[in-house]
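Quick one:
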Amino acid sequence: MSYRVPVEQLHRAILTDELWRARFATAPTATLELSRPDGPGTVRIQMTERARPDKIPSVVKRVLNTELVLERVDNWGPLADGTASGTFTGTAKGIATEMDGAYVLRPTATGSEIEVTGLVAVTVPLVGGMIEPLAEQLLHRVLNSERKFVEQQFEAAATA
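Output:
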C-alpha cells in the first residue's frame, strides 16, 4: 500500500492516539484500545467490531453460531534506518477464523509504503475454503480504508 507522505511522518501518525481515535469515531459498534507496552516509538492497537448482520455474506451466515465479532491487534515497532516493522493478528468470534502477518513500512521515491504479508485460516467444515477468500478480501478492504483515511488526514492537515 503506497502513501504520498514520507516514512517518518507516516510512522509518527501511526503511533498517535489521535489518528486511531479519529478513525474509529464514526464506528458505533467498534472498540479501540491503545497502549505502548514496548516503550516509546511503538504502539499496540487493539480493535474490535461487531459486524452488522446486513453486511455478512450469506455463506458466512449459514455457519455462524452467534454474532460475528472481529478483533485485530496491530503492533508497530520503532522507526530505525528509515524502516519500521509491525505484526498483526486477527480473529473472528462466531466463526473460527484466524489471521496473522507482518508489516514493513519503508520509504519510496514518492513517499512510503507498507508491505503486508500474512495468512488467513478459516476452520469450518465444508465451507471454510469459501470463507477464507472473503476474510482475506475483508482484510484488504479494511487496510485500504485505513490508507485512505490516513491520506485524508494528511491532506486536511496540509490545507489547515
